[in-house]
Amino acid sequence: MVEACVPTVDLSPFLREDDEDGKKKVMEVITQAYEEKIKSSPSTNAPLPAGYNRQPLHSPDKNEYLLIFPPRSNFNVYPPNPPKFREVIEEMFVQMSKVGVLLENIINDCLGLPPNFLKEYNHDRSWDFMTALRYFPASTNENVGITEHEDGNIITFVLQDGVGGLQVLKNGHWIPVVPAEGTIVVNVGDVIQVLSNKKFKSATHRVVRSGVRNRYSYVFFHNLTGDTWVEPLPQFTKEIGEPPKYRGFLYKEYQELRMRNKTHPPSRPEDVIHITHYAIDN
């Protein structure tokens, strides 16, 4: 029989001055729970830190997460509990990937591109990934879950619990994305913004934490492979007499800059790398 995957810790020994053995047992249970998370920590050669991760203390983002690549990836590191977690999360990944291909085809048609253009441009699914996130309750002096940003990929899907906290910026105002059962939040990413020469705009969003409860969400990133070249398509530039709004770049180059935003947060907000890093002043 599999042991319960969520430990219950009796903290009463810390309310008694003479129960050193009880205190020791509490600390052992907590340490063991932490070690279980460490078993799911990422390998060093993954393109992104797959497995269990927690935002560094100096990061303004306050969450922990499990990141997985496609089910057959050798980079994936799964926790041993809860039972059947791997089976469920991999099936979820497969279904989200199908939705990603579907939405990519719809965007292709909305942009008036040749049939299957985006599918052929972005045919390799090995860089897709999904994260299972837990946001900690807000403290009395700050409530940031994830700072405002745009997603750097093609399309992002968000499945959020009933706690809420996701907000999108519209006309200078933050609009709450109210959780609705049976729905998926869809964000168009920076790659579509560049390819369309800003005909489609990447959504600026953030997460604000509740002061009472943890927030849980799953986020699926429909990506490009790292060596893919990204630049405004001729259909939105020279073919219609419009200058390109962005210079071209390798996708992995942009992702490395974005990752540095997280690992080495700039002291000034204006130094955070966005897609405007590649913008052309016309």
Any overview of this molecule?
The protein has 282 residues and is of the alpha+beta class. The protein contains five helices and twelve strands. It starts with 19 loop residues before the first helix and ends in a 19-residue tail after the last helix. The mean pLDDT is 88.
Main traits of this protein?
single chain, 282 residues, alpha+beta, four-stranded antiparallel beta sheet, 12 strands, elongated
The total of helices stands at 5
Compute the separation of the termini in Å: 66 Å
Quaternary organisation of the protein chains: single chain
The coarse overall form would be elongated
Strand content: 15-25%
Proportion in helices: 10-25%
The major sheet is characterized as: 6 strands, antiparallel
**Arithmetic mean of pLDDT:** 88
* Widest β-sheet, arrangement of strands: 1-2-3-10-5-8
Structural class: alpha+beta
* Gyration radius, in Å: 21 Å
The helix/strand series, from N terminus to C terminus, equals HEEHHEEEEEEHEEEEH
Low-confidence stretches: none
Total DSSP E strands: 12
